[in-house]
């Protein structure tokens, strides 16, 4: 990468970080591109060169959030391994991701900005559902192999992920609780795993 390209990327990253801070502090509606430019230490023209509108800048923040979600470890179903061994890495990766302060910051920004816009909220929910598809696919494959009981795979996936979010996501987002420490992450993931297997394993 050439020096001008590196500078351009650094400016883009600075704009995104400034936008996250401004959106988090002031909300989507009140935050202006002028304020974001000032916080990022760049000109307003530079901000618009990277992002034609505030909506597109916010969409990029959401894209980073989805990228974090989709980067969580997903495991293809294997009939030669115990279900526990296959599910554990997926649940552990998810709870670790939810304990990442950068992820929580992005999530707070996204959720705060969607509260006053049903259309924006609907888009966010749909995209999050798409990113959480890996566990649904795994459950469907385990069912086809006769190792998981007959249940709507999406329902079961949502259920087990809800157990994780009840401890590691929503209290942090809505009540400002601290991210889970490593020991609590382990406890929460293990508990969700045991409950899933007790209910659905054949």
Describe the fold and architecture:
This protein is mainly alpha-helical and 202 residues long. It folds into 2 domains: 3-52, Arc Repressor Mutant, subunit A (Orthogonal Bundle); 62-200, Orthogonal Bundle (Tetracycline Repressor, domain 2), CATH 1.10.357. 76% of the residues lie in helices and 0% in strands. It has 11 helices and no strands. The protein has helices at residues 3-26, 33-40, 44-50, 54-70, 83-98, 101-114, 118-131, 133-144, 153-168, 170-175, 182-200. α1 crosses α2, α1 (3-26) packs across α6 (101-114) and α4 (54-70) crosses α6 (101-114). The longest helix has 24 residues, at 3-26. The chain is elongated and about 60 Å long. The termini are far apart.
The radius of gyration over CA amounts to: 20 Å
Total domain count: 2
CATH topology of the largest domain: Tetracycline Repressor, domain 2
Summing up helix and strand content along with how strands pair, one would put the structural category as mainly alpha
Order of helices and strands: HHHHHHHHHHH
- Beta content: under 5%
How many separate helices?
11
The coarse overall form would be elongated
Residue share in helix: over 70%
Q: CATH superfamily name of the largest domain?
A: Tetracycline Repressor, domain 2
Top CATH class of the largest domain = Mainly Alpha
CATH architecture group name of the largest domain:
Orthogonal Bundle
Oligomer: single chain
Mean pLDDT: 88
Largest sheet: none
Low-confidence stretches: none
| Overall number of strands | 0
| Terminal CA distance | 53 Å
DNA-binding region: 32-51
Keywords: DNA-binding
InterPro entries: DNA-bd_HTH_TetR-type_CS, Homeodomain-like_sf, HTH-type_TetR-like_transc_reg, HTH_TetR, Tet_transcr_reg_TetR-rel_C_sf, TetR_C_Proteobacteria
Domain HTH tetR-type: 9-69
């Amino acid at each position: 990468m050439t020096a001008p390209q590196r500078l351009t990327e650094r400016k883009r990253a600075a704009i995104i970080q400034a936008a996250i801070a401004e959106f988090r502090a002031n909300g989507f509606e009140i935050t202006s591109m002028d304020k974001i430019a000032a916080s990022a230490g760049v000109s307003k023209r530079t901000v618009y060169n990277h992002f034609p509108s505030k909506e597109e800048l916010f969409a990029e923040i959401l894209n980073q959030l989805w990228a974090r979600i989709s980067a969580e470890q997903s495991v293809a179903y294997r009939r030669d391994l115990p279900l526990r061994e296959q599910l554990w890495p997926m649940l552990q990766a998810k709870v670790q991701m939810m304990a990442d302060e950068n992820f929580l910051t992005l999530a707070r920004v996204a959720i705060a900005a969607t509260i006053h816009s049903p259309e924006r909220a609907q888009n966010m929910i749909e995209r999050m559902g798409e990113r959480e598809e890996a566990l649904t696919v795994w459950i469907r494959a385990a069912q086809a192999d006769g190792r998981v009981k007959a249940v709507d795979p999406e329902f079961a996936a949502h259920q087990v992920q809800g157990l994780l979010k009840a401890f590691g996501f929503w209290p942090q987002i809505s009540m400002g609780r601290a991210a889970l420490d490593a020991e609590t992450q382990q406890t929460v993931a293990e508990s969700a795993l045991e409950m899933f297997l007790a209910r659905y394993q054949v």
